[in-house]
Specification:
6-stranded mixed β-sheet, globular, single chain, alpha/beta, binds flavin-adenine dinucleotide
Length: 394
């Protein structure tokens, strides 16, 4: 291993996971985070059994379980008539099939536990207020320059700097991410405030024409996470001003009154315009590579963006350890292994976006086929939830 640390740009869920995975292999790393503090936004996140497996390897799963909620099912309900269409049961047969559970957690708890684990490792240095502006690959080392004028020499560089990654701009150079035309609003409220309490134990998605609403509990059930999304017709018509509160209310006006009423749990002061990118095959170059949203940003319809970032980190650490200092070989091997799985997540997420937002005949067909599903057999996501092999074992 080189005496120089690997520089990790970005200390989000992806950056900290790869820091921890590399430290476990004995590799020194230096994480440079642009924000004044390491942190996450205050909403929920879903974690599939594929990532529970990775978090177990990273040694943080037990700590995370203390903050987690384990829903009994993923329920799909038609937002127009409020009738359940199908569900994935998350009980014993799910656990038997995948060996790990599906859980939901507050992002700050997830990020916080990984951050604490990083702080306990002497191989890891964490520095905030260090926004990368550029880097150079010198062949046997890399040099990173930050906004405040600070420079860092590293053995290699990993861009875990998210959707708007400057590292990606330097390596891939494919411009801005794709605007999907979907806009999300979120809100977390005390569970006591929830009026319709019929789905408290599940991860529930109400789906309808150009809309969906997700609900699940967090923090031992004390609070309810709510996410409302519209697929904007105004965007499809080419209008620049789309996805505002007026369009949210207009699209949800077709939903059952009980679904419409749930918009009361959403904060109306901020929204997220959703993006992804076409999958690429060239996100590693020389001693630099990308990870997580910087490499393969995805829509949230499989709830796998952060899951993929964490898987990336574990695989990347395995390849670095195996390549014994040959970082370009390690990064190409990592990219080769991650490319198709992450591309499948990106493209399948687009499909699931269409599927849940279906209208008219497509909605009827979806509901009829989905009602015939066996809730104990989630074949559509089996390839995903079975997880990946690392170091020759699942
Ligand atoms: C509505 C919604 C719901 C979602 N739900 C789920 C879900 O249920 N499950 C799931 O797995 N995923 C989900 N995702 C996706 C998930 O949030 C992202 O995929 C994940 O956070 C990506 O992690 P990351 O570490 O790659 O990037 P980020 O979380 O974006 O972290 C990037 C970090 O880099 C820092 N940074 C940026 N620029 C620089 C720079 N120049 N120098 C230094 N640091 C920099 C940033 O400050 C940040 O800390 C959802 C996304 C959305 C929008």
């Amino acid at each position: 291993m080189s005496n120089l640390p690997i520089l990790i740009i970005g200390g989000g869920i992806g950056g900290l996971s790869v820091a921890l995975a590399l430290a476990q292999k004995g590799q020194r790393v230096h994480v440079l985070e642009k924000a004044p503090e390491f942190g996450e936004i205050g909403y929920g996140i879903q974690m599939g059994p594929n990532v529970s497996r990775m978090l177990d390897r990273l040694g943080v799963l037990k700590a995370l379980e203390l903050h987690s909620v384990f829903p009994d099912a993923l329920r799909l309900i038609d937002a127009i008539d409020n009738r359940e269409i199908t569900r994935i049961a998350l009980g014993n047969s799910f656990l038997e099939r995948y060996q790990y559970r599906y859980f939901v957690i507050h992002r700050r708890d997830l990020h916080g536990e990984i951050l604490e684990a990083c702080k306990r490792r002497e191989e890891i240095t964490l520095e905030a207020s260090r926004g990368l502006i550029s880097f150079e690959d010198h062949g046997n080392s890399v040099l990173a320059r930050c906004e405040n004028g600070a420079e860092y020499e590293g053995a290699a560089l990993i861009g875990a700097d998210g959707l708007w990654s400057p590292t990606r701009a330097a390596i891939v150079g494919d411009g801005a991410p794709r605007v999907a035309g979907h806009v999300t609003y979120r809100g977390v409220v005390p569970t006591d405030e929830i009026i319709d309490r019929s789905h408290l134990d599940s991860m529930t998605i109400w789906v309808g024409p150009d809309l969906h609403l997700v609900q699940y509990r967090l923090r031992g059930g004390a609070v309810m996470n709510n996410v409302a999304t519209v697929s904007s017709r105004r965007f499809r018509r080419g209008e620049r001003d789309f996805g505002g509160l007026d369009e949210l209310d207009e699209v949800f006006s077709r939903a059952d009154p009980r679904v419409r009423d749930m918009l009361r749990y959403i904060s109306r002061d901020r929204n997220w315009v959703l993006h992804d990118r076409e999958p690429v095959t060239n996100w590693s170059r020389g001693r630099a590579t990308l990870l997580g949203d910087a490499a393969h940003p995805t829509l949230q319809y499989l709830a796998q963006g952060a899951n993929m970032a964490i898987e990336d980190g574990v695989v990347l650490a395995e390849k670095v350890a195996a390549a014994e200092g040959d970082f370009s070989r390690a990064f190409l091997a990592y990219q080769r292994e991650r490319m198709n799985r992450t591309a499948r997540v990106v493209l399948s997420s687009r499909f699931f976006g269409e599927y849940i937002h279906a209208d008219s005949g497509a909605r009827e067909l979806r509901n009829e086929l989905a009602r015939r599903r066996d809730p104990e057999n989630p074949w559509e996501v089996d390839w995903l939830y079975r997880g990946i092999e690392v170091d020759g074992r699942l």
